Amino acid sequence: MTDWTAFDRQLASRRRAIVQGLVEFVRFNSVSQESAKVRVTGEWLTAVLRARGLQGRLFETRGNPAGFGERRVPGATRTLLIYCHYDTKPIPPAGWFQPDPLEPIFRRGLPEEGEPGRPLGDFADDDLGSLSLYARGAADDKGPIWSHLHALELMDALGLSPAVNVKFIFDGEEEIDSPSLGPFAEAHRDLLAADVVIITDGPQHARGRPTISGGARGMMKVELMIEAARRDLHSGNFVVPNPAWKLGGLLASMATSDGVPLIEAFEEDVVGPTAAERRMMAALPLDLPALENDLGVRLPADYVERIMFHPTLTISGLHSGFVGTEANTIIPHRATVALEIIDAVERAHGGERAVLLPTMGGTVPMWVFTDLLKIPTLLVPYANQNNRQHGPNEHMRLDHLFRGIRTTAQLLADLGMSEVRR
User: Fold this and answer.
1) What is the pLDDT of residue 250?
2) HSE-up of 422 (CA within 13 Å, CB side)?
3) Residue 48 and residue 44: Cα distance in Å, rounded?
4) Per-residue model confidence (pLDDT) at position 128
5) What is the pLDDT of residue 215?
6) What is the per-residue pLDDT for 295?
7) Mapped to the 3 state alphabet, what secondary structure does the chain carry?
8) How much is the pLDDT for 65?
9) Average pLDDT across the chain, whole number
10) Is the pLDDT of residue 403 over 60?
11) Does the pLDDT at position 325 exceed 90?
12) Which domains does the chain carry?
């Protein structure tokens, strides 16, 4: 067994340099829809892989490029494939408590608590473990990527060799449903061949306990368009149907005011939880009143089951006519709506028992690995539970970043000694 004392000591001594590197990483704008900027980020990340001896390559796909890195370990009989994504959600400026969401700031708590964000240089080394880094992509998913790469870097510095071959696949389109990942995997089965896949997207349990999930709920996107007149018309000069009103009525018929779907047979083919999965849900340490207080809304008593085993009907975008600086007295002719390894992990957390989830409510493309490549796959999130991914004030707690480094190193050291069961 590895003595981790030296590793932890070396990690503590390098924390500032590690954070400075993450600052550089999140400064890259890699919003999925901005392909040229995603490519620049991918090229930078590929160079980082090569600098760590991982034979980094940037592969073309039908969309944004995918980053790949690999290290073969002499004598290793198993291979670990780690999936992350380096693209991010768009960055609307409203709601952020900082001038530029791509220029990281640091604070000890949440922005609503009043502490101003400050640059890293304002804090001493001893303060780093109590800080959070605020920037788009910090938690979703650049922070976890940075944990993986520094785990290998620290192992190399200490002469600790991974016990498994390790591969990385970095998706450039996860935030737009990974449309190119399936075809890429089909065309590169040998490249992605592995004994087990670890995905480190998503949030940990609210108490910071290690969290492991066996699935992800996934998503299907539908776009509806209602068209009336052939062009936009002056609302004072014409009396014609406004498709925005029709769209509103259609949406109101599809779900109750609190979002419960009303569509006939909407859950007809949904598979409910097994007895074992119900036991796992019952064992989850969920403080529902505390979560309600944090979110400011009432939550259903079957909250966990609804997240994991029931489909939701979500309006992810709604457009009709002109708003803001483009406001006009126009009857729009169109309205559109877009609907939307357990032991090793516990050892890395000082023996604390992991929270085991049957599945998660997110949309990471697990199906590519489980259904297409037929590889056992687990979700092991690294980011803090309240990281606000996708919204304003996204952040990564630095203690989670550092703990993620230790977790990855523990996995790389331990998985070669354990049996991977299919």
Assistant:
1) 80
2) 9
3) 6
4) 97
5) 59
6) 77
7) CCCCHHHHHHHHHCHHHHHHHHHHHHCCCCECCCHHHHHHHHHHHHHHHHHCCCCCEEECCCCCCEEEEEECCCCCCCEEEEEEECCECCCCCCCCCCCCCCCCEEECCCHHHCCCCECHHHCCHHHHHHCEEECCCHHHHHHHHHHHHHHHHHHHHCCCCCCCEEEEEEECCHHHCCCCHHHHHHHCHHHHCCCEEEECCCECCCCCCCEEECCECCCCCEEEEEECCCCCEECCCCCCCCHHHHHHHHHHHHECCCCCECCCCCCCCCCCCCHHHHHHHHCCCCCHHHHHHHHCCCCCCCHHHHHHHCCCCCEEEEEECCCHHHCCCEECCEEEEEECCHHHHHHHCCCCCCEEECCECCCCCHHHHHHHCCCCEEECCCECCCCCCCCCCCEEEHHHHHHHHHHHHHHHHHHHHCCCCC
8) 98
9) 85
10) yes
11) no
12) 5-218+350-417 (3.40.630.10), 222-339 (3.30.70.360)
- Model confidence at 233, pLDDT cuts 50, 70, 90, reads low
The amino acid present at 222, given as its one-letter code, is V
